[in-house]
Amino acid sequence: MPILTKNETPAKGQKAEFELDKSALAAIVSDLYFQDSANWKSVEMVFKSNPGKQRRVVKFDASQATPIASFFASARARDIFEIEKIIINDFDNGNLVIPRGDIPNATTEFDVDVGAPVGPSINYIDWDLYLFGVHTLGPEGFIQKLGPVLNYELAPRSIADQIASDTNFSLTFEALDTDIQDGWSVGLAKTSLSLTAADQFVFHMNNSNLTFNSEDTYSVSALPLNVGTNYFNITRAEGILSFWLNGAPIHAPAYSGLLLPLVRVGGTVRKAYFN
Fold it and tell me: Could you tell me which of 3, 29, 244 has the C-alpha nearest to residue 110?
């Protein structure tokens, strides 16, 4: 049996389901402790593009009998992602790293070809709500307002590009690290009215700390930014929202209701688009 099975063909702007065979992975482990998959909490497969060194991490929950996770590359990604390493994490912050050179069939079984860039199918976001005349709009979903955020509830949203209930989608925001100032946010709103924390799923910069907040029930802080362009990806498939920062998974809650693309700037969003 292969260690990794790609249940779907990877393509830019779309999630692809990957399946892990724990027994097959355990068979290439030399460490006696990590040969026992009962000691595994999670398994991470780290992919890097060649060229470009774009990074994607596919993280499996090793408590599942047949773990399944998703690979996602944005519409602007490179074409080829090579497996760099596999990391097996235990329950006490220990891990075992298996480098590419020790992974059998790395090229044929693991490496990912997401093909040519997606072009005409990209739909750029039309920001048409709560602009108050103080935002600068541009092509490709560009929106900018320098200086402090004036109103945290009345954040720009898109009625034109609202997402119907139960609709699958892939949404990407792009921003430079220097664009992301305090108060800057991107994500989704559950309503076109004033927002409360329970009505949004957002990446948010607060006191130079990038956080992610989900319906005021889940949050994570100290998210790392790339120097240069950063990609904030959101997808929905079968009622599950998945949030990614530069290819790394952040959170995946269940939500099938109406959604509106949302920004809140202090700073700049360079591009915002469905792909």
Answer: 3
